[in-house]
Structure formats: C-alpha cells, structure tokens
Write a structure and sequence with these properties.
The complex is a heterodimer of chains A (362) and B (427). By secondary structure, chain A is mainly alpha-helical. Chain A has 17 helices and two strands. With 427 residues, chain B is α/β, with parallel strands linked by helices. In chain B, helix 2 packs across helix 12 and helix 11 crosses helix 12. The chains are: A mainly alpha (362), B alpha/beta (427).
Chain lengths: 362, 427
C-alpha cells in the first residue's frame, strides 16, 4: 500500500497540483455531504468551516511562526463588523464582494498590528494581543450609533440564488459559501507553507538569530505572518456574521480568542489539518452537552454548569491523551504503523515522529 | 437564603396599576378547551402524547444570577401539570439551552431548537439583546415566539413579528409608573438614572422622562453601564457628584448589586428606585453577600422602591403564592423561593392557559390566532394582558412597592381584584 502511495506521489509531484487535487476532492466530498444532511447539520458544518478558516490563520501565526495571539477574536470582529456595516439597512451586495472587503479590512488592521507585534516577544506579545481582544469590542459599545452597541448589528441572510429552487435551504447555501471559503483558504495556505515564505516562517520561529544570519528579514516575515493570519480571521469573521445573523460585542469576547487557541492546540499546533480537527471539536462537543441542563435531574446549580464542566473535562483528557493534538495522535498512529511495516518516514528516524512537519511522508 | 425572604417583609407604599384604556373592557371568557376528539400530530413539536417547547436562557455567565432559576421553575410547573395528566393528555417537554446572555450563542441555539429539536414554539427566551438577535429568524420560520422574558417594547411589533408575544410589562410602562411614583411621593428631590445601555435601559428612561420631564434630569445624572464591564465605580461617583438624591436603576440583578455596593463604599446613600427585573430581594441579597465577601447584605436594600406585576413572594395568604410555593417545595426545593421562581411559574401558567385556549390539535398559526382572540384572564398577574390581533404586549401594569428597612414590617394586601387559582392549579 505504501508502495502504491509513493508511486502516486511521484505521479502528481508538483506541490500545487497535489494540493489542487486534494482541494477538489475535499470540495466534492463536502458538496455531497452537505446535500445529504439536514439543514441543522449544514448550519453546524458552516460553523466548522468558519472556525477552520480562523484556526488555520492562527495556527500559521502561532504554530508555524511562533507568535502567540490572544486577539484573534477581535480580528474576527473586524471582519464581522465590516461585513455587517456593508450589509446595513438591508443593502444587497454579492457575498464575494463582502467577503473580499472584510479580508482587506482585517488585513490592513493586521499590518498595523503586525508591526507592533513584530517588536514584541513572548508574554509581551500575548499581552498586546490580549489588549486587542479586550479593547476592540468596547469600541462597538462606545460608538453605538455606528456599531449598534451591545445589541449589535443584524445581518440579513444571504438568499440562495433562484436556480437552486425555492425550497433550497438557506443553511445549505451558507454552508457552500463557507466550505468554499475554507477550501480556498486551506489551498492557499498549504501552498504558502510549502514555498519560501512558509520556510521562512518556520526558520524565524525556530531561531530568529539563525534565520537572520541566513538572510531572512525577521521583522518582515513576522509582519507577513500576522497580516495573512489577520486576513484569515477577517474572512472567518465575515462568514460568522452571515452565520449568526448578528454581530455584537459579546460574540467576539476574549472567550472566542481563547476558543481559537483551544482549537489549534487540541487539533495539533502548526498543522492545517489540525485546525480542521480542532474546529470540529469546538463546534460539536458543546452541542453534545448543551441540552443537559433541562434533561438531567440534578439541582440546577449543578445541572446549569454541567455542560461547561464536561467540555473542560474533555479538553483536559484530550491534552493528557494526545499532547500533540489530534493531528499529532494520528501521525503517531501512522508512524507506529509505518514502523511496523518498516518504512521509516523520510528524513526521520524509524518510529520517531516529527510533530511539526505539516505533512509527513512527502 | 429562604429565611431572608421571610424575615424581610415587603410593604406596599402606593399602588399604580395603569392600563391601556379600552383593553380592559373586553374581558370575555371564551375558551375552546372543551372540544373533544383524538390527538393528532397537528404541528411540528406536537405528537399525540407530547408537546415540545424550547428556550434559550442564561444558565451561566453574568446574567445567570437569579435568571437561571426561571427556566428550572417553569419546568417544575410543567412537571406538575404533567403529573396531573398534562394538557389534552399531552405531556409538556421543555428543552432549554444556556446561551450565557451572548446573542451569538442565542442565534445558534435558537436554530438548534427550531431545526434540530423541532420545537412547537419558543417560550420565555430571555434577554433583550439576545432575543433581538433571533426574532427575525424565528418569525421567518413562522414559529410561535411566546412570552419573551424581557420588557422591551420591541416585542410588540405585529406587522414585522406576527409570531412574537411579550409577557412582562414593557419597560416604558414601568418607567412611566416609577416616574409617576417619584413625582407623587419623592417630589422636589434631585433624580439621577443608572441604566443598562441597550433597549432595556433606554426604554425605561423613555418612560421615566415622559413622567419626570427630560430636562429635569441633567446629563451628568444619566449614567449607564454595559453588562460586559463590571466596574461601575465611575458611574456611581458621577451620580454622587451630581447630587442626585433619588437614583432610578434599570439594571439586571448583578449590576443592581454592584451599584448598591459601589455607592455604599463611597458613602453615597440615595433612595434607590429599581425596576422589577433588577430588584429581587433574595437574588440581590445573595449577590451582595458574594460580591462583598459577606461584608454587606440585605441591609443595603432597606428603603429600596421597586414595582411588581405578580403577587409578592412573601404573601403567604395569597392562593397563587401558596400554589406555586407548594410546587417549588416539591420539585425544585434546592432553589431559593424568590421572584425569579415566581416569574417562571407564572409564565408557565400563562403558557398552559394559552395551549388550552388553542384547542386540542393546534397548528402554529392557529395557536397564534387563539392567543390574539382569547383573553387569558384569571391568572396570577395583577394587571390584564394586552394580547390582540394588533397588540402583542404582555401585562399592562405594575404596582409600586417599597422594601422595608427592618424585618418588622407586616405584609399588607394590595387592593384590586385578585383572582384565585383553579382547584388543581392547572388552567
């Protein structure tokens, strides 16, 4: 089987072609999947796609470039508020235009913030991005007439085009938009990581002095990583606005930023696939426990907090069982399998896994 | 906790039930509840043996203190009804989710209730900013949206939101009545406002201004807060500096407690006039104790003026109170017996009245129609409901009460025709 795989690898050797094939395959599978499931599952699939876009951007910044951001929820808010302002008063704009402008606006903020971030290290960077997460939602409350204050701005849903038929569920249409955005984002990021900037990101993360000696402009690399990451967050934010139908400060609290960190850590830091796994956990685990308060026969002080406690417990156990995240665990299983078949991963020792390699075996 | 309520009597100072003119007259008692036949699955969420309703509630987070009791309490009343055979032989299933008072979570959980759980109707969904996020969606899905737990007058918008109904008196009515009380009983004192900076607080201020006159309260005496920022020190200092002798507070319980503590800390002792939603004595006492680590408590509530549209929880001679207290003791005895529990039960009672009025096999549309055409009278409320085909308001009036400073004050009865619950406690 492994022999067959390596032959296929040779056949589609250029990275872009391989990524394109994977993207097309993923798109086809997701299209079929979204058509098979009910409206509510489509709605949740949309959420996974949205979080995957944001988490992919964050994992590039944190996992591959080594810059910790606690402020990605705020960058999502920039995308979401841009989209909501564009669609205010029931203005009709094509979805693609709204998404692109939101990406741009978050990217521009990303440049400004990236320059500041590139000068900061470790806890100082975490502190600065934390400021962003805490302060930005307050802007919406302060300038109530523009941003709608605590109640926020409502976002009209994007109606499915007529050729899909009158009965086409709007949830599925939104799922298609979000999934398309996620697939395109993943494709672009995967290519980027395989090219010179991607290698520079990792070099800077591993050792800034060594990277500088190798001719990499450390500051510029860090700003670039921040901008790309912010643009992803902006895209996710705009999709989020369509998804929830409401853009309000409470939706983009510090909690959201921490959720994104949770997603990339649970999924596997530094891996795009890990960002997807993490997003699936983020969306579906809370759903499993959400109705518990009204069904369990426990004092409500216990029952009300049970979903949160279980969610926290799952995260703790997941990190104990798979300290390198879901993708790390999958790689380990794969590596054990390889070791048994006596095919050590290229460039690595037999049975030893390189956690940080975004796609081993290529 | 429970003993606090017993020892801390509520005394009624003035009664001001204001009704929208004309609506009182038509109080016919036509119910179609007697129709016989077999149960069918007449609508989503209704089977031959069950009717499922859903809600979004702040069970955790900043709005949870007090409010998290409401859904458990409604559920207790439904369990009581179920234990007595249900309605038309159907058992009520109540599914409620924790939205943490976050509109984004409300949006996603409301879709879960409608698309996944396929509830017949939404019931008692709590919060103004949270429910504003989903009211368009719920109406686009043509799902009855009953008795929103918020006094925003935005729920009374029949042309845009024909499926949405309010329940508690709207905050503007409340503001007007509190304003009138201040004019009549606290005339000549400088008045200041402390309010939540959203539809809740702004509607209340609108009502207050209508009575007191907008120009009598200068900008410096109008202080607001946002629920995401728990530091209310600057606002309290500004009110103190403005010399306000009466502070009207349109706040949720946690922020009423924060304001009271903040004022006590700087030695500022105005007369507090607190809107109903933020004034429950038991909830506030618990919050004051927990925020101040036991240093403060019920003594800060002495002399506080508030308003009510349900019988008082301490009024043990009231038949509604003994009915609901009995259900509380049987099903949810771990919760304190307080205004939130009473609220949840009274709301659940109204829902059961409405289900009964809609007949044996309602559709979503026929249910709404029945609610608009049947007067839901004989419930625990002190004022009538405003429901009609052009009006989706809830209770139309409130009564003003003062919380006694000591625990010696007896409970005096309010005047007005109080109804009694039916013998088995089910409409």
């Amino acid at each position: 089987m492994v022999a067959v795989r390596s032959r296929v690898d040779r056949l589609v050797a250029p990275t872009l072609r391989r990524h394109l094939l994977i993207a097309l395959g993923a798109a086809a599978v997701l299209l079929l999947l979204s058509a098979q499931i009910g409206a509510y599952d489509d709605y949740n699939l949309t959420a996974v796609a949205i979080f995957a876009v944001a988490a992919a951007g964050l994992t590039l910044l944190t996992g591959l470039n080594g810059q910790l951001s606690l402020g990605h929820g705020a960058l999502m808010a920039i995308g979401a508020y841009t989209a909501s302002l564009l669609l205010k008063d029931h203005r009709q704009l094509p979805v693609i235009v709204v998404l692109l402008i939101s990406v741009l606006s978050a990217g521009v903020i990303g440049i400004a913030f990236g320059y500041a971030a590139a000068r900061l290290r470790g806890p100082y960077l975490a502190g600065a991005t934390l400021t962003l997460a805490v302060a930005l939602p307050q802007v919406a409350t302060r300038y109530k007439s523009i941003f709608g204050g605590e109640s926020g701005l409502t976002v009209p849903p994007s109606a499915p085009p007529d050729w899909l038929g009158a009965d086409f569920p709007p949830e599925r249409w939104l799922a298609w938009i979000a999934l398309a955005a996620a697939v395109v984002t993943m494709l672009l990021l995967a290519n980027l990581l395989r090219s010179a900037p991607g290698r520079a990101f990792k070099a800077v993360r591993d050792n800034e002095a060594a990277a500088a000696l190798a001719g990499i402009d450390v500051a510029r690399t860090q700003v670039l990583a921040f901008v790309i990451s912010a643009a992803c967050a902006g895209l996710a934010g705009a999709l989020f606005a369509y998804w929830s139908g409401i853009t309000s400060p409470a939706g983009f609290s510090l909690g959201l930023s921490l959720q994104l960190i949770t997603a990339i850590v649970i999924g596997g830091l530094g891996s795009l696939a890990g960002a997807v796994w993490g997003s699936i956990v983020l969306v579906f685990v809370p759903l499993l426990t959400s109705g518990m308060a009204s069904t369990v026969h426990l004092p409500s002080a216990v029952a009300d907090n049970l979903p949160l406690a279980i969610y926290g417990g799952i995260l703790v156990i997941a990190m104990l069982v798979a300290p390198h995240g879901i993708q790390g665990a999958l790689r380990r299983i794969l590596a054990i399998g390889r070791a048994r078949w006596e095919y050590p991963p290229r460039g690595g020792q037999k049975g030893v896994v390189d956690w940080d390699d975004p796609a081993p075996g290529t | 906790m429970k003993s606090v309520m017993g020892g801390n009597a509520l005394r009624i100072r003035g009664i001001a039930i204001i009704c929208v003119a004309g609506l009182l007259a038509a109080c016919g008692n036509s119910t179609s509840s007697t129709d016989s036949g077999t149960n069918t699955a007449s609508a989503p969420g209704i089977t031959a043996t069950t009717i499922t309703i859903g809600s979004t509630q702040p069970l955790t987070g900043r709005a949870a203190p007090g409010y998290s009791e409401i859904s458990a309490s409604s559920n207790a009343y439904f369990q009581y009804v179920n234990a007595h055979g249900g309605i038309f032989g159907r058992q009520i299933t109540y599914t409620y989710y924790d939205d943490t008072y976050n509109p984004t979570m409300t949006a996603s959980l409301t879709r879960k209730l409608i698309l996944d759980d396929k509830v017949f109707a939404l019931f008692s969904a709590l919060g103004t900013p949270t429910h504003l996020a989903v009211v368009d969606y719920i109406n686009s899905q043509k799902v009855p949206d009953l008795f929103v737990s918020s006094g925003c007058n935005c729920w009374n918008d029949v042309s845009n939101h024909p499926y949405t109904f309010g329940w508690q008196p709207d905050y503007t009515i409340e503001g007007k009545i509190l304003g009138q009380y201040i004019n009549q009983n606290l005339g000549g004192k400088k008045v200041g406002y402390f309010f939540q900076n959203d539809e809740f607080g702004l509607d209340g201020v609108k009502g207050l201004d209508a009575q007191l006159g907008a120009s009598t309260v200068p900008d410096a005496s109008r202080q607001n807060y946002v629920p995401t920022n728990t530091n209310v020190g600057p606002q309290i200092a500004a009110l103190q500096a403005s010399g306000a002798q009466v502070v009207v507070s349109f706040s949720i319980p946690a922020f009423t407690a924060l304001a009271l503590l903040g004022a006590a800390k700087v030695g500022y002792h105005p007369i507090w006039v607190v809107s109903n939603v933020g004034s429950d004595v038991t909830t506030l006492t618990g919050l004051l104790k927990s925020f101040s680590k036991g240093a403060a408590g019920v003594q800060l509530l002495g002399g506080m003026v508030t308003d009510a549209y349900l019988p008082l929880t301490g009024d043990s001679s009231n038949k509604w109170i003994s009915l609901f207290k009995g259900i509380h003791d049987t099903y949810i005895s771990t919760l304190p017996w307080d205004g939130n529990v009473l609220y949840g039960m009274a709301q659940a009672y109204t829902l059961v009245q409405a289900i009964k009025a809609a007949g044996r096999n309602p559709t979503r549309a026929s249910f709404v129609k029945a609610l608009e055409t049947t007067k839901l009278t004989g419930g625990p409320g002190l004022a009538p409901f405003g429901f009609s085909s052009s009006n989706h308001l809830g209770y139309l009036g409130v009564q003003v009460v003062t919380i006694a400073a000591s625990d010696s004050g007896p409970i005096s009865q309010y005047s007005g025709s109080a109804s009694s619950p039916p013998p088995n406690g089910i409409p």
